[in-house]
Design brief:
About 40% of the residues lie in helices and about 15% in strands. By secondary structure, the protein is of the alpha/beta class. α3 (about 70-80) packs parallel to α4 (about 105-135) and α4 packs parallel to α5 (about 155-175).
Length: about 240
Amino acid sequence: MTNENDKRNVAVIAGMAAGFGETLARELSQAGYAVAGLSRTAAKVSDLAQEIGHSGSPYRDYACNLGNADQVAHTFKEIEIAHSAPSVLIYNAMQLVAKPFAELTPEDFEQSWRSTCFGAMVTAQAALPGMLSRGGGTMIFTGATASIKASARFAAFASAKFALRGLAQSLAREFGPQGVHVVHAIIDGIIWGPQSRQRFNVKRENCLEPEAIAKIYLQLIEQPSCAWTHEFDLRPSVEKF
């Protein structure tokens, strides 16, 4: 049964992590959403739950293997009991695999696909009934440069991101007429954050700022149905494309 004291709009961030996910949670909370962050192990990013709690909109981490359909379904039931059925799903999860093709193992390939695409499928299936019952909602699938351009060494990652794009297109055509806004976001560049600093050793001025992307995601959520965006790309001005 839904908590009668907290029937606010609910947003799920699948693939929650410090940096972009954390920034999205703050932006959605400020817009009045209760936010649920899903990750393989409860992220506990910074003191986010306590920080957001002070603003009046709750945040909670959920430990959930997005590649496990039963776990995903159970977690969405937990979220609905705590608040209500989510009206927003943002899918950020991915597994970046960059290897020469000859060194790529079947396990590498499957792991990248399972995290990047299969998890999106089961998460969307878990979110859709609640959205349809309330007359609509928004799903945003975060893509990458690899969604439309497969570079050398990126066979696993690019094929998974291509598949995610196809999933988003199909869902948009099937459920858009039923009020569900489905968006595929091509993030063509590196998002500034702790992971990017550690992995790529990049300069901040060459990266996308997470705050700017989060504000655009909120604009997409609030778009009127007479003028929906399905796909768009974002990149810093210095990025070559």
